[in-house]
Amino acid sequence: MLPRETSRSQEPQRKADIIIKLSEFEVPPMQDIMLVGKRAPIGSEAVRRMVDAVSPEQYEIIRIDHEIFEAVVVKKSLLKLLPKEKLLPVVIDEGNRIADDNMVVKAQINIVIQISRTVDL
User: Fold this and answer.
1) Alpha helices in 19-71 (DSSP H)
2) 84 near 76, Cβ under 8 Å?
3) How far apart are CA 32 and CA 53, in angstroms?
4) Where are the domains of the chain?
């Protein structure tokens, strides 16, 4: 037996998934690292004053010689986990892929250190 035909066509169903991530607003409005473009609206000196006023002694501002960025602002606690000579090249390389010299880019960094030790029994 054939299914019964209806005279009106079925409208497709339309749905919307909405994903909202809420988090506490941070002052200064940055994460773990901020890359400051050479022609960004806020320069490295203004960033230094901002972090010194709001989060004294928590960030290090590192001036760099780069075609896009003039400075990198790094949370000092990250530099205890990974030296800046290892961390900065990775961050700058990835920032270079998405930014231009007019931008200030903030980044959240998760560093996981894996340790495996063998002891004699």
Assistant:
1) 44-54
2) no
3) 17
4) 33-107
